[in-house]
Amino acid sequence: MTPALDPAAGIVPAAGYRHLVGNALALYCLAMDDHDAAAAGRLLGNARLHFRDQPMLVGTDSIVSLYTAGFRNPAPTRHLISNLLVQADGPDIAYQARYQRWSLAGPKPTCETVGEYRGLFTPASKGWVWSEHRVLQS
């Protein structure tokens, strides 16, 4: 089971922005590799999700539905993140990172997708909320 991100853990000091975003993206990648649509919904339930060319999704139920449909015939995968950039954007935290999705279904790992993640975390009364996540395919 994919661990949960706890946005109620408190406001993160500026030095912790990269840590917060890096952990959130790692949890997202674990959810993808575990084919855990419920975990993706918990992570992104407050976010506007822009997934490739699909219409924007908002709300846990629609996000869980998207990933459930994508995980119907799941092959084992590993998502890798690199080139993470994190910066303050007004009151928000903005990020961008490169990702690769590798299939582990064959005798050798095969890179299936290369793309970029972009998004925002917004401060809330109990911590940071993941408010936007974009999955862009190169």
Describe the 3D structure.
The protein is of the alpha+beta class and 138 residues long. 26% of the residues lie in helices and 41% in strands. It has a single domain, classed as Nuclear Transport Factor 2, Chain: A. It has a six-stranded mixed beta sheet with strand order 2-1-6-5-4-3, with helices on one face. The longest helix has 17 residues, at 17-33. The chain is globular and about 45 Å long. The N and C termini lie far apart (29 Å).
Mean pLDDT: 89
The rough form would be described as globular
| Largest sheet geometry | 6 strands, mixed
Which CATH architecture?
Roll
End-to-end CA span: 29 Å
Question: Class, according to the CATH hierarchy?
Answer: Alpha Beta
Instruction: Note the run of SSEs as H and E.
Output: HHEEHEEEE
- Widest sheet: strand ordering: 2-1-6-5-4-3
Number of domain modules: 1
Give the CATH topology.
Answer: Nuclear Transport Factor 2, Chain: A
β-strand percent reads 35-45%
Specify the structural class: alpha+beta
Q: How much is the radius of gyration in Å?
A: 15 Å
Number of distinct beta strands: 6
> Stretches where pLDDT falls below 50 for ≥5 residues?
1-5, 7-12
Helix fraction bin: 25-40%
**Number of DSSP helical runs:** 3
